[in-house]
Amino acid sequence: MDILCLDLEGVLVPEIWQAVARDTGIDALNKTTRDIPVYDELMRMRLAVLARHDLRLPTIQGVIAGLEPLPGAVDFVAWARERFQLVVLSDTFYDFAMPLMAKLGYPVLLCHRLVVEGGRIVDYRLRQADPKRHAVRAFHAMNYRVLAAGDSFNDLGMLEEADLGIFFNAPAGVLAAHPDITSVTGYAELQTALT
Amino acid sequence: MDILCLDLEGVLVPEIWQAVARDTGIDALNKTTRDIPVYDELMRMRLAVLARHDLRLPTIQGVIAGLEPLPGAVDFVAWARERFQLVVLSDTFYDFAMPLMAKLGYPVLLCHRLVVEGGRIVDYRLRQADPKRHAVRAFHAMNYRVLAAGDSFNDLGMLEEADLGIFFNAPAGVLAAHPDITSVTGYAELQTALT
């Protein structure tokens, strides 16, 4: 019995910030870790944009409430839970993701927290630096073999640290930068790669 | 968002070995870590009894297939998953527990493995020594606050290491030996203690 670590956005659910960008028409919020690999740089930009537009947490949560898991994700999660101990490792925030986790049947989610004052998102708290790599290390410290799948630069620590790390639906730029990492497209291919 | 670590048998599902004892009429299998706190001593006794009676894994799995979560456990798990990241820490075996995990909606289960040859349970593999304490340490290493509840001696490492450790429906002998640890009876009291 192995641990399976999955990224959330782009793997099981849509990119949350891009959904907010689409709903609000604020194009700067379309950028992800695929565009700006340094996470803090990306988040500082996002927080500044939210402040400039006075876009508050309840509005963003309203956008997220309308999102659904990616097509096939619910079935894939059910498949994975029968075969692995499933842990979702994400750089999102509990304040955003919990309604989506409900739609996935509440797999364990390890992510971060926002700092919210009067509905305004004023800061964020990373649980720790390089959190996905540290999570895989922690499961290794419990003597588990760890499999992992993600789609972007912020998954590299997890994919490198895991016993088997797989890019899932990763964009060409990410794949080109890391040709050594196995890459699959779609849940059927991921299932084959995991078994 | 905290991690909640729960023991399995006696907390969410019935004691599996006691169910096997009842079904087979083999009284020696009624003993638990409440009776024999040294786990390896308990397991060696169980394996010897299984060999003596030629009681094989498929027969035991048949008994387990007929078990249900404890009354209220499914609702408690649903409540817990909305509020915590839930991890079940158990000294059972994946070979036994997975059908029960299905009935609980597949929360993450960290436990052990049996060594099975031709249906005969010939040995067992602890994932690591003091596994529940090490699991709490691993979540601490990920900068989580950890709450924990269990009912017996093998939960002590987890309850001591956690930021809040609670005895749940523990027998008098266990409570008397550890009067310093908070104790509750029933899921309603556990919910209150956790919030």
Written description of the protein model:
The structure is a homodimer of 195-residue chains. Chain A is an alpha/beta fold. Helix content of chain A is 43%, strand content 22%. Chain A contains nine helices and seven strands; from the N terminus they run βααααβαββαβαβαβα. Chain A has helices at residues 16-24, 39-52, 57-65, 73-83, 94-103, 131-141, 156-161, 172-177, 187-194, and strands spanning 3-6, 85-93, 108-117, 120-125, 146-150, 164-168, 182-184. A seven-stranded mixed β-sheet of chain A has the order 4-3-2-1-5-6-7, with helices on both faces. In chain A, a hairpin with a 2-residue loop joins strand 3 and strand 4. In chain A, helix 3 packs parallel to helix 5 (94-103). Chain A is globular. Chain A starts with a strand and ends with a helix. The relative contact order of chain A is 0.18. The A-B interface holds A 1, 81-82, 85-87, 94, 98, 102, 105-110, 113, 127-128, 131, 134-135, 137-139, 141-144 and B 1, 81-82, 85-87, 94, 98, 102, 105-110, 113, 127-128, 131, 134-135, 137-139, 141-144.
DSSP summary, beta strand count of chain A: 7
Q: Strand sequence of the main sheet of chain A, in spatial order? A: 4-3-2-1-5-6-7
Number of helices of chain A: 9
Oligomer: homodimer
Largest sheet of chain A: 7 strands, mixed
In percent terms, what proportion of residues of chain A is strand?
15-25%
The secondary-structure class of chain A comes to: alpha/beta
Q: Portion of residues in helices of chain A?
A: 40-55%
Distance between the termini of chain A: 12 Å
* Largest interface, counted by CB within 8 Å of the partner chain's CB: A-B, 28 and 28 residues
| Radius of gyration of chain A (Å) | 16 Å
